[in-house]
Amino acid sequence: MVRMKPWVEIAEELRREIDRGVYGPGERLPSGSELMSRFGVARQTVQNAIDQLRAEGLVLSAVGKGWFVSERKPIVRLARNRLSKAERTEGRGTFLSDAAAGRWTPAVTVKVGRERAREEVRSYLELDPARDPEVVVRDRVMRADGEVVQLAVSYLPAEIAGGTRLEEADTGPGGTYARLEEMGFGLTHFTEVVSARSPRPREAELLQVPFGFPVIQVVRVAFAGDRAVEVNFITLSSERYQLVYQIDAD
Amino acid sequence: MVRMKPWVEIAEELRREIDRGVYGPGERLPSGSELMSRFGVARQTVQNAIDQLRAEGLVLSAVGKGWFVSERKPIVRLARNRLSKAERTEGRGTFLSDAAAGRWTPAVTVKVGRERAREEVRSYLELDPARDPEVVVRDRVMRADGEVVQLAVSYLPAEIAGGTRLEEADTGPGGTYARLEEMGFGLTHFTEVVSARSPRPREAELLQVPFGFPVIQVVRVAFAGDRAVEVNFITLSSERYQLVYQIDAD
DNA sequence: GAGTGGTCTAGACCACCCA
DNA sequence: GGGTGGTCTAGACCACTCC
Predict the structure, then answer these.
(1) Do A19 and A121 share a domain, yes or no?
(2) Pick from A249, A125, A110: which is nearest to A171 by CA?
């Protein structure tokens, strides 16, 4: 047997016990002091082991109460049909459409503004830097049953969105995409670029992400024919969300 | 100004300086001792701040040398056409097809076996638990230029794959999917379920993932008509990979 | 007030790198 | 051999919860 770092061994031992059901979902783990004496290590070492299990999503912590085996919250699977035209013409934006499917109460707070497009945005929207283009920014915090579950910042060329309803807080029934279509930008397809990363401290707080738990980042670009008309940077808690895609075999 | 935890403030200060270019890509940050005296904190506090920046992918560490501003490795974007029939008939598996696009040298080590399907696998493959089905397991470690970049474990019903080339280490040109099609299972579509999580210590070591850095998990199911013929659990370093999907607007 | 998780300090040791 | 990052220890303090 290889000699491991103490905190790794402790994490592995506890993980085995959780898997084996010694501590069931929702149950309390031994306290810090108990684990210290059981494994004969210092407080910090126990903490490191627990931090690992928290990062894996196995354990939740509550200050003043204890460490608890996580009861897996139901995971929301964001499926492909959330972008369907049918949903849109029924007057639902993508988030509201998810809410209807998931049976929770949605709430969105929006901050709308206008700014010079930064390089990343320009490249996604294929804007000509020489013309120093402006974009309309829609910065949204989305809540489900009061809890923040998504952050989304989307950018639209000011040339398209400026002075329209897309520059108001409430874009109306069907959301941004419905307005774009009314304006003659019939949406043909979307690309989504999916990545994962650790949250900045501020995001971790907003999304109530457990320590060390990653967030999923989706960059969605909406196209009307060849033209990119919107880019949306979406941040999701990976504890709560999975993304589902369907791919046809040619 | 709100009072923050010291390590959060230190991380923010260093992040600002990196953004501002005080320390450019590849350059060394001040050493632990220097940061301790600069911020007037203990070693562990500096370490916590650095750990945060490492988790964000901004900073890399090298024992005995120092902390360095990460030079972003080029990110591989796994696009949708990696599953195209064209690639397959050219004799490339999906991984080799990625390699050809990315211009690196691929290497795969495979472990093939057979086992009783666990519940998760059964449900993806829609196997009847009453018949206690077996599956062929293909456990693969994929390397690019010698470095491990993907872990993939795929399961095929033994009823289909048993005794065929799919139970050998080398599945031949075009890989698993090509063999399936030859056997009469013409692939019609795939679903991919994307999630992110923190790596287990073993995965972190294999994938050489920086501390606290998440991995992307993709569960891909291959369908021949209505029938699920393979499920593949793929683990990727999120530092190296992004996934690209295209979605048609109905 | 006692117990809990979370953080910070000060000091120590180790493995590693480089001159 | 001196500097570096990484970890562990022992002890302390804080905010929080529960009684």
Answers:
(1) no
(2) A110
Domain harbouring B33, CATH code? 1.10.10.10
Among A160, A250, A154, which Cα is nearest to B187's?
Answer: A250
Given an 8 Å threshold on Cβ–Cβ distance, is B214 in contact with A201? no
DSSP 8-state class, residue A115: E
In terms of domains, do A54 and A157 share one?
A: no
**Among B24-28, B73-77, B146-150, the least confident range:** B73-77
Total residue length of chain A:
250
Strands (E), B6-157: 59-62, 66-69, 76-78, 106-116, 134-144, 147-157
Geometric angle at alpha carbon A219, from A217 and A224, rounded to 5°: 160
pLDDT in tens, B49-94: 999 999 888 999 999 999 999 887 666 667 665 666 666 665 566 7
Distance between start and end Cα atoms, chain A = 49
Residue B213, CB, strand C, below 7 Å? no
A242 touches B at CB < 8 Å: yes
The span from the CA of A248 to the CA of A22, in Å, is: 44
**How many domains would you assign to chain A?**
2
Distance of CA B27 to the CA centre of its chain: 27
Tokens of B156: 């095929």
pLDDT per residue over B171-185, tens digit each? 888 889 989 999 999
Among chain A residues, CA nearest to B177: A249
Range of the domain at B17: 6-69
Within 155-194 of B, beta carbons closer than 8 Å to A belong to: 187-194
Give strand D nucleotides closer than 7 A to any protein Cβ: 2-12, 15-18
Indicate the residue type of A155. Y
H or E, element range at A110:
strand A106-116
The confidence score (pLDDT) of residue B147 equals: 74
Beta bridge partners of B113: B137
B64 touches strand C (CB under 7 A): yes
Domain of residue B116, CATH code: 3.40.1410.10
Residue type, A177: Y
Distance CA B62, CA B75 (A): 21
Residue A57 lies in a domain: yes
CA-CA distance, A166 to A112, in Å (whole number)?
A: 9
Find out whether A247 and A225 touch, Cβ atoms under 8 Å: no
Contacts of A226 in chain B (CB under 8 A): none
Band (A198; pLDDT cuts 50, 70, 90): confident
Q: Which residues pair with A137 in a beta bridge?
A: A113, A155
- Strand C and chain A: which residues 57-116 have CB closer than 7 Å? 61-67
Q: Which of chain B's residues have a Cβ under 8 Å away from the Cβ of A8?
A: 201
- The answer to whether residues B145 and B31 belong to one domain is no
Cα gap B210→A223, rounded to integer Å: 36
pTM of this prediction? Answer: 0.83
